[in-house]
Amino acid sequence: FAYGSLESTIYALATGGVRSAVAVVRVSGPKSQQVLQEIGQFRQFPLPRVATVKRLYDISGGSLIDHAMVLWFPGPKSYTGEDSCEFHVHGGPAVIHALLRNIGSFKGCRMAEPGEFTKRAFLNGKMDLTEVDGLGDLISSETEMQRVQALNQMTGSLGKLYESWRNDIAKCLADVEAFIDFGEDENIEDNILENVHGRLEFLLKIMKTHLRDSRKGERLRTGVTVAILGKPNVGKSSLLNILCRQEAAIVSDIPGTTRDVLRATINVNGYPVLLADTAGLRYDPADIIETEGIRRALKEAQSADIIVLLVDLNDPKLTCVSTERQLLIQEEIMGPLNWNEDMLSLVEERTLIVGNKLDLDRNKQLAVREDLFNAMISCKTSEGFDQFLSKLSEQVSTLCADPKSEEAYITHERYRSHLENCVLHLEEYLQESRKWSSRPQDCNIDFALQSVPLKNAMNSIGCITGHFGTEDILDIIFRDFCIGK
Ligand code: GDP
Ligand code: ZN
User: Fold this and answer.
1) pLDDT tens across 432-450, in order?
2) Which residue segments constitute the domains of the chain, with CATH numbers given?
3) Which ipTM was obtained for this model?
4) Model confidence at 1, in pLDDT bands (50, 70, 90)?
5) Dihedral angle over CA of 193, 196, 197, 203, nearest 10
6) Candidates 228, 233, 236, 238: which one to mutate for ligand 1, based on the most atoms within 8 Å of Cβ?
7) Hey, which of 12, 155, 199, 267 would disulfide with 112, CB 3.0 to 4.6 Å?
8) Spatial separation of the C-alpha atoms in residues 426 and 203, rounded to whole Å
């Protein structure tokens, strides 16, 4: 990390670009107090963290800029850890422009870069990197469950866990280094290395359980993917439309990058769901375009967390072919996609079979087959949607982290790869040290190298939280050990 020049004072408009009633301008850095004083012309400077209503003045001509609310946050008790202040002005573009121009005219003040306030908060030790990520996720969270997960992370749930693991490893490292340096000393316990082994094995077990999370936290952050599959004309596009329309919290309607996969994000009971409407599946595609559509449908089906297989309850062919779930899935998905039969159980596991066009109701025979269908709906009358949505929501929630539980989930791929590295380093240490700890008198062993895997393990976790360096190990050696020399 380049610590950059923290001498500069940065400022920026903190509220959105659209015209709003109130706009907030933030300032952080050593000039904050001077900026606030000269623009506010105070006889009595505002008390820390107390909102004060004030007239703001142009610093060159002395004319009025606006009536505003101002706040003074002396460091280190501020968001960035530095002296900072805030101006809550009226949201007109000209007001904002006049204020920004005034702040910018102070020597040593410049516009902030994206994320620079938070970067300073991190550099000043106010937040670790997981908390920074949590803040970013909170700002972009679109559903209730995403909000709760991001908020937990922003307030340190994941950072504290990882930091405690790093601390555990640091203590083990301190013990190992003490053994290497002072192994002969009577103050060093005899079984110190076995003790370290036990602690590391315990930690490894916890870390591996944490890693075996089926990506539930990441999925909650990024959304559960649902592919709608089925023959042409069964009502796939109608289903997508109705799901988007019914859902109060539609987030966006993104036209597919491909011509024939339509995407939409919806909110299912607080969980984000990314829907994909695919081209109709059939055995004998009419032309190249349809063949390509089916190829793309296959891609969606392969990667989707959930497949919604839509069938027309009034399809006369359906009655004779499909008497079982597996047969139906084989006939409607596996066959047209030319999919290996070994995949069947995997596909079945994540497929919801939904019968559509219940309103036409010509075929009572299928409509009573509740063992075959997870839900029966009509896109025309909306019949059966409550049942369908509750089935979908049930499936979606089991694929996502429960942010209201005590458990902390991995939310970013980056954490996973660093944690996997950490596990490898710890295993490497255990494997090697089992060899040398049984014969420490062997002079072929370079003891200086033995603790390297533990240092690497610590740094792997340090990469997640943004804590590097080994100076804290020294502290632990001198705090926890009474070497007495
Ligand atoms: P897709 O090819 O699978 O995407 O099917 P569409 O959504 O384009 O629908 C094909 C046709 O079926 C359209 O004429 C729809 O109006 C009709 N349709 C869809 N759902 C229903 C339903 O529940 N009941 C009835 N009666 N017609 C439906
Ligand atoms: Zn369609």
Assistant:
1) 888 776 666 665 667 778 8
2) 9-122 (3.30.1360.120), 127-221+413-441+460-485 (1.20.120.430), 224-399 (3.40.50.300)
3) 0.98
4) very low
5) -170
6) 238
7) 12
8) 9
